[in-house]
Amino acid sequence: MATSSTEQSRGFFRIKSAEWPALLLSFAYFFCVLGSYYVMRPVREQLVAAVGSTSLPSFYLATFLVTLALTPIYGALVARFPRKRFVPIVYAFFILCLIAFIPFFEIQGQLNPKVLGGVFFVWVSVFNLFVVAVFWSFMADIFTVDQSHRLFSVISIGGGLGAIGGSLLAGSLVGHIGIAKLLAVSAGLLGCSIACIAGLVVWSRRNPIEKGVDRNEVVIGGGMLAGARQVFASPFLRSMALLLLLGDGVGTVLYALQADYAKAHFPDGIARTEFFAHIDLAINVTQTVLQLTLTPWVLTRRGPVIAVITADAVKVAGLLLLVLVGNPALIAVALVATRSFAYGMEKPSSDSLYTRVDREERYKAKGFIDTAVWRLGDFTIALAMNGLRGLGMTTTGFACLATFAAGGACWTAWRLRGTRELATQAGR
Fold this sequence. Notes:
Layout lengths: L8 E2 L4 E2 L3 H32 L4 H25 L2 H24 L6 H30 L2 H62 L19 H8 L1 H31 L3 H24 L1 H8 L2 H22 L5 H22 L6 H32 L4 H21 L4 H4 L5
Antiparallel strand pairs: 1-2
């Protein structure tokens, strides 16, 4: 254990004194990661809106193929290097890519929006998947099950505040410095996260989960494609993959509908960037309030499974409102409600479940689910939406399908209680 069982816990979140350094570093780490992402996210969204959601299947297919190609490389890094090396390597790679994009956005008006939009969409999507997946794998590797229940919701607040800060920066700076220089701001925030990683490596060496084991130096090993094999072999991991796909069904439908709404109502890149930054700001403020109030209470007293079910039940309610009213203007309301609970409650809760599996599964299987499985789902859902549009389906019909997906996620989360990893603790 990283802390003594006799050490007194204090406060609403029951944080022990030896945990504070790691908690603050993890908080700052997630703040920088999501701050970086949410500075660049509106840049991506305005490019998607410029070409319309009908281009999403090709964007998602390219993202899936690139993710599939990178997954073995990531697996090789995990297999050959200790975490103190491969985690910073992943972040340094994305910083260099961000800097390389800046010249292209300086001449954005001279480039084909579909080409630039496709390339940047793929890159940002891969960035989001790998950088955030690495973060939570790292968290699951340095904290115990008990610590994950108490600390993950607090750490998520750091990410929420980073997302708010990134959204505010994007919305307030884009009109003054332009789109290209936002990428430099994003790269700077990501660079700060590497310093946080170094501090966490030092803390975890002094507070190992397993007595006498320094996980910073231990190479996880295994094959490059081990993550995919583990997912297919484990009922728990298969359920986690299905849970992600059902959540993706909700998110992708609303994302596509919102992109079309923005294309119809906002004429230029600056206006669209500001619009999406405001949507992100509303989502991030709401999810941060959740992480400060409801999420820690449910997670520590009812366990992660109940927290996931609660989040998906709220998604069902928000989508039913869109179904009953059918007004496209309510897409933004449904998007804010569903994504706030997805990232403010469901994500930290589901990620805490990975503390119950071994190290190789935390990095490789979780990485495979959070990257290849997620993007395959994006592509399939977006392609199906284009087909259903051709058959005349409207916003109301898509909202109905998303409602069924959210209901299926509730059922899948409940079934997790019967898996070997959770059965002995009744889902806690």
